[in-house]
Amino acid sequence: MRKKGWLVAATVVILLMTAVPAQAASVPSTGETTVKTVSSLTPTVTSRLEEAVKKMAGSEPFSFDTVMDMGKTWIVEGELNDGSAVFQTEYNKVNSRVESTTLRYKIGSMDQVLPSELKKKVLSAIESFDKNKTLEFEAFWRVHSPYQNNEPKDYWVFWGAGDSSSSLYVDIADENRISIHAEYALANVDSKLVTRAENALRNTWGKSVAIAHASRHKDESDGGFYWLFEDANESSSVKIGAVTGRVLEVSTPQTDWKSDRDFAASFSVPKYTPEQAKKAAAVIAKRLFNMSLSGYTVKIDKNTYTFTRKGQAALIAKINKKGVFYELSLFPSNGKLQ
Fold it and tell me: What are phi and psi of 330, to 5 degrees?
């Protein structure tokens, strides 16, 4: 997903809520929006909102400025009295709870806001992300959204400066683990990697596919560090290890079932026996990953074939109704995609 325009300087909550990704805010209810005064909120609601902001801002005084009635939710905004941040809280009327709280800081407030050890860790992660590219950030947020479906729910997030679509997450609930995402112009990516990605798609799909998008990802939680290359429609993708330069995953849009029912009927009985699967996957495994499936065992689950061998990388491959492998993922024995 392209992530341009995350940091839109807008005070209108509707514009803000459409400018940020799902990780950073829960979407308010649709319907007519009305502006209300802070005094229109009940003491119970006000108290819960104040408690949520205090949990994030600590002892720094703050004030509520605007209330927007979104139907099922109230969006209440304000600012810290020292001017270091503005904040937004979302209160769910139906469930009588604060859904999320977000404090939005300018990058110049890092020294003032971040604990020294965390700041040191963030700066180190930025420096080590790519020796050929300096990541720059213009804002950072402190977010607590305990009821959202995706992770993280309690975190810091830094946003790339200008047109740079980059982000750095610090997962507070997971020992301040850091993950970084940055998009690159193809002209700034090693051409050998782009060619490798295009060759991987050609070997999987049997036709040429031009790479249009490139991004680099690093996740401290699982040790992953890789490039992601995609075509213009983002329907085909290739992961290549940032450390090893090795193809790790190839995905193409060769699914051919028409519905969940069609899928269930098509793969209710395995299309391949384990030996047939090894024979069918052997050539493409060699081409993509320089991998021999000799000595591997095979586990079959619907259209997914998992090839494993003790001490060796595992291969997970998916087939369509024709028995064509359209998605293949290599998992190194140490579990790290690098």
Answer: -105, 130
